[in-house]
Amino acid sequence: MSVHLTEAAATHVARMLEQRGRGIGLRVATKKSGCSGFAYVVDYAEAIENDDEVFESYGIRVVVDKASLERLDGTEIDFVKTNALNRGFEFRNPNIKNTCGCGESFSL
């Protein structure tokens, strides 16, 4: 099982952690939400809990709770800029069967 960052995403997370002044990496999870079933939750990782799995990409830790790992296994997280105003994480999740029209949620 694995979840990994592209170099662009790792660079962005490293810069944000440095500006923030604390945190040990990026926490990624899923939650029930939206019209398709699940949505991604992204936050700073402050600690590693007993039920967490930790992966590393380009020197950045990616922390995933075991409950979310099955839905995230094999996911590549990129940081993309679509234009001067829009940028953010893009998830390439091989487990997704459908997404909602707005792209905010997915089903397995």
Strands of the widest sheet, in order across it, are 3-2-5-4
Helix/strand-derived category reads alpha/beta
| Annotation field: number of helices | 2
The CATH homologous superfamily is termed: HesB-like domain
Low-pLDDT stretches are none
Radius of gyration: 14 Å
Helix percentage range: 10-25%
Number of strands: 9
CATH architecture: Sandwich
Strand content: over 45%
| CATH topology heading | Hypothetical Protein Aq_1857, Chain: A
Query: What is the end-to-end distance?
Result: 16 Å
**CATH class descriptor name:** Mainly Beta
Average pLDDT across residues?
90
Please write out the topology.
Layout: E1 3-5, H1 7-20, E2 25-33, E3 37-45, E4 52-57, E5 60-65, H2 66-72, E6 75-81, E7 87-92, E8 98-99, E9 106-107
Parallel strand pairs: 1-6, 2-5
Antiparallel strand pairs: 2-3, 4-5, 6-7, 8-9
Report on this model:
By secondary structure, the chain is an alpha/beta fold. The longest helix is centred in the first third of the chain and has 14 residues, at 7-20. The model has no long low-confidence stretch (mean pLDDT 90). The chain contains 2 helices and 9 strands. It has a 4-stranded mixed β-sheet with strand order 3-2-5-4. It has one domain: Hypothetical Protein Aq_1857, Chain: A (Sandwich), CATH 2.60.300.
Task: Note the main attributes of this structure.
single chain; about 110 residues; Hypothetical Protein Aq_1857, Chain: A; 4-stranded mixed sheet; 2 helices; about 20% helix
